[in-house]
Description:
By secondary structure, this protein is α+β, with helices and mostly antiparallel strands.
Amino acid sequence: MAIDFKNTLDLAGNTMAVFNLIDHGRRVLHWSRATYNPSAEWVAQQLRNAFMDLDDLPEAIVMDRDSIFLPIVKQTLPAMGIKTIRIGYKCPWQNAVVERFHRTLSDELLRDVQPVNDRHLNRLLCLPEAKTVQKPTAWQTKTTQKVAYRIFSPAHLGN
């Protein structure tokens, strides 16, 4: 797993920090939350919340040398039995999976939506549970394809 912060602006121009926790092996976003005032206590609580639903804790977490992570490295993660891997100073390419997600977050969400506040951004960042997503049945797939064809077919657009 890897963690990092991304800074963004709200509608009023105030800076918000977005905390992201990504599974390196599967390249899947596991946890993402925003706040105006990130602190070591807040990050520690976010890690506890993120790991609450996991069966197995990760062996290690990759993180940069941000000063906010220092108490996490010294207290929180060792208490959980998780090893920390700190990347080099000013070497974001060593944590490339998180940095790539930050670019995707900027391009796919924050380019089109200006969050009003941290609560609004947290609602945008919420991920649906994988258990609640249902695959469409064969009938639903065929119906959806027919409707899409009917709506977007060039024959229906007229001359």
